[in-house]
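Dear Dr. H.,

I hope your travels went smoothly. While you were away I took the liberty of generating a structure for the chain from your last submission, since the lab meeting agenda had it listed for discussion. I wanted you to have the full record in hand beforehand rather than looking at slides cold. The sequence, exactly as received, is reproduced here:
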Amino acid sequence: MKLFTSVLDSLIVRRPRCWVDRPRHLCGDKGYDYPECRRAARRRGYVEHLKERGIGDERCARGQRHPARRWVIERTNGWHNRFRALLVRYELKSRNYQALVEFANAIICFRMAHA
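The corresponding predicted structure, in token form, is as follows:
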């Protein structure tokens, strides 16, 4: 919650031109259910979908269901954990570890393209 605004400000991926007119959605879990986070997301032009604390997982207070895309990061981390060299970091140099991460990403993309 404390680094929420700095993470939003440091995003480096630009939107494609064909998506400029569409609303930008921001999905998050109950850890971001603070008024400051909601205001920061709205100020930056996001439609926020943050789960609310104290409410069951099946529905939020507004009666809307949150899409499954909230778990993209956890799924990607699970894919990385299938590579033993990334699960237990054996590399001492950060450049070598970064190369392994990029190589694993290339393998994951190759597998997804040919699935």
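Two observations you may find useful: Residues 1-66 form one domain. Residues 30 and 56 are 11 Å apart (CA to CA).

With kind regards,
E. W.
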